[in-house]
Write a structure and sequence with these properties.
11 helices, 2 domains, seven-stranded parallel sheet, Helicase, Ruva Protein, domain 3, alpha/beta
């Protein structure tokens, strides 16, 4: 029988955003290692490195030692093909809501082609709408509705367990039918889109928030391929060129 590919687990990134307590980072590292995951990324942690994190990691200090720290979530997800945010609450900002088994299958399928990520928010406030807007889907753990708040490390353990069970359950996964755009490419599209819509006087550059969030939700309903992002940006560039040629936007604007 063909064994599961260990590279799939290596390509699954656990991202902890704005973690308040270093002990939770260590406990999350331990939860990861017990399930065979090792790629830990921290975004703007309050305290790290820290002896409390080392103590809570127990035998997983190697996962902590290999952790990468980024100032922003966008940078942490720049090279990923798929990012799923973990939240106890359903949000309008993300179109697709997945169960842990569904998320595990999606992540393992996409991990065949490159890095993917599970994103966990701050212990108290969870993921902000801004942070969720950087994800292509939402994962919710079906906990007790009367008390659904899981400890950060416990949530990491649940998702890592589901990933491992899915990984052990089959040796191969369907290949994605297209080359997905990376997080960086999608964010560059949104930046270009906002700039172009402002130049075309379709949005108010002073308050682009609501419209851009709606557009993010629109595009999150489908996985954007690299080629599709290039096409969309080509259309935006053509529109900008036409507007400038009409003399209504300065060429250096």
């Amino acid at each position: 029988m063909t064994q599961p590919n260990p590279q799939l687990l290596a390509n699954i990134r656990i991202v902890l955003a704005r973690t308040s307590h270093p002990g939770n980072i260590g406990a999350a590292a331990r939860a990861m290692k017990t399930m065979g995951l090792t790629d830990l990324v921290l975004v703007d942690p309050a305290v790290f490195p820290n002896s409390q994190a080392d103590a809570m990691a127990s035998g997983a200090v190697d996962v902590l030692a290999g952790a990468r720290v980024y100032p922003t979530l966008a940078e942490a997800l720049a090279d990923t093909r798929l990012a799923l945010g973990v939240s106890a609450r359903r949000r309008d900002i993300v179109a697709e809501v997945l169960t842990p088994p569904e998320a595990s299958a999606r992540l393992l399928g996409e991990a065949q082609a490159g890095p993917v990520a599970l994103v966990f928010g701050n212990e108290t406030s969870g993921l902000s709408n801004e942070e969720l807007s950087l994800c292509q889907g939402l994962v919710t753990i079906p906990a007790n509705p009367e008390y659904s708040s899981l400890n950060l490390a416990a949530a990491v353990q649940v998702l890592c367990y589901e990933i491992r069970q899915a990984w052990l359950g089959r040796a191969s996964w369907p290949q994605p039918g297209f080359e997905s755009a990376t997080g960086e490419e999608i964010e560059n599209l949104y930046t270009h889109l906002e700039t172009a819509l402002a130049e075309l006087e379709f949005l108010n550059p002073g308050s682009p928030g609501k419209l851009m969030l709606k557009l993010r939700r629109l595009f999150s309903r489908t996985r954007l391929a690299k080629e599709e992002v290039n096409i969309l940006r080509g259309i935006l560039t053509a529109a900008q060129v036409a507007k400038r040629a009409a003399g209504t936007v300065p060429r250096n604007g």
